[in-house]
Amino acid sequence: MSEIKKIGNYRWTVCALIFFATTVNYLDRQVIGILKPLLESDLGIGEKDYAHIIMAFQLLYGVGMVIAGRLIDKFGTKIGYGISVILWSIAAMGHALAKGVWGFGFWRGFLGVSEAGNFPAAIKSVAEWFPKKERALATGIFNSGTNVGAIVAPLAIPAMVVAWGWQSAFIITGAIGFIWVVLWFIFYEIPEKHKKVSASELAYIHSDADEQAETKEKVSWLKLLRYRQTWLFFIGKGLTDPIWWFYLFWIPGWLSTVRGAGLSVSSFGLPLAFIYTMTTIGSIGGGWVSGYMIRKGMSPFKARKVTMLIFALLVVPIVFAQSSGVSTWGAVCLIALAASSHQAWSANIFTTVSDAFPKKAVSSVTGIGGMAGAVGGAFISYIAGGILEHFKELGHIETGYVVMFAIAGSAYLVAWTIMTVFAPKNKKVILD
């Protein structure tokens, strides 16, 4: 019998459930980006109005991150995750009732605050179910659900719009979340209480000796904010998450108005599908790379640091995406490389939390960092809306994208430098 069979592998079933939830999470939030050209032509929603709608999502997503992280640490992943998905599914479907900017802003904000529960719950679930040497890979796998959701959206949503109208896209994608909720409550439980987890698998999950004596006492936010590791995660997420938001919400418009020479909603699905297919490879590959380094004897901290530097450098070529000498598909390839590198970066920066903090604090710290990323995303939306609207009025919207791609290309190296220079010598936080 192989060692894997001796140990058991139910933890990968849990990983599949989290992957499914993350896919639905991104499918729901991606709908509005695909429909951006229609919202402009049918409802008169311009660049600044669209930016305000996205900002409503991101600001409330940031608030929700902190709240959700705390509540999930308090009530556990099973209840917290399930309630989050129920609420965001209702919010996603509610978009079909919107008639203008204020309606979309309301439902977008509701979606933001409820979707915020996904990553704190997912990261905490991985910390509960996986030893350190497997966490980056597990994180990379479930995080690739963001890419699958983004791939499915441009392929499926245009067909829904053509067949049943734009409202149907929100209703159908939102309803999928309720399927997940049923599966979650049937199959999920923490390892110590799960009937299908063998003693050998449970021992393997808890093979990190420094975590076995952990107490169940809750940790206050103020106490977490005393640690440099919390602030470095906060800064890293705050500088790099906004770039992913920019890809998610603005690249469909870029394809339509700049590179696609006026492509319709039903015509740019292939480039977007290609971009997010590549990000799936980056997400899983980035988790595998640092895991490989750890298996070869490198410390978890150094493995994450080296891996994040590699992918920070691979983002840089996106600065040439709007160059006149680069073809449309050449530009798409540069964006795909940058977006896939972001996901590799993301798989590792998320794992730095469970590397540094006890499991009881993981969801709270993840929420704090997620808030930084969401607030930064709202800021980048405000900047992008203003810059693109300005250059659009001048008849040179492509120049606006030159500026945005320059910001995207430099953010990761800035974040990596700060996180490396100010990293504490004692990497593991002792809260007890």
Summarize the structure.
By secondary structure, the protein is mainly alpha-helical. The chain has one domain: MFS general substrate transporter like domains (Growth Hormone, Chain: A, Up-down Bundle). It contains 18 helices and no strands.
Topology:
Elements: H1 3-7, H2 10-34, H3 36-43, H4 47-75, H5 77-94, H6 101-115, H7 118-129, H8 132-143, H9 145-164, H10 166-187, H11 199-205, H12 221-224, H13 228-259, H14 269-295, H15 300-315, H16 328-356, H17 359-393, H18 397-421
Helix pairs in contact: 2-5, 2-7, 2-8, 2-9, 2-10, 2-13, 4-5, 4-6, 4-7, 4-17, 5-6, 5-7, 5-10, 7-8, 7-17, 8-14, 8-16, 9-10, 9-14, 13-16, 13-17, 13-18, 14-15, 14-16, 15-16, 15-18, 17-18
Distinctive features:
single chain, mainly alpha, Growth Hormone, Chain: A, 18 helices, 0% strand, disordered N terminus
Structure overview:
With 432 residues, the protein is mostly helical. It has one domain (7-206, 215-421): Growth Hormone, Chain: A. It is 79% helix and 0% strand. The protein contains 18 helices and no strands. Helix 5 runs antiparallel to helix 10, helix 13 (228-259) packs antiparallel against helix 16 (328-356) and helix 15 (300-315) runs antiparallel to helix 18 (397-421). Mean pLDDT is 83; it is low at 1-6.
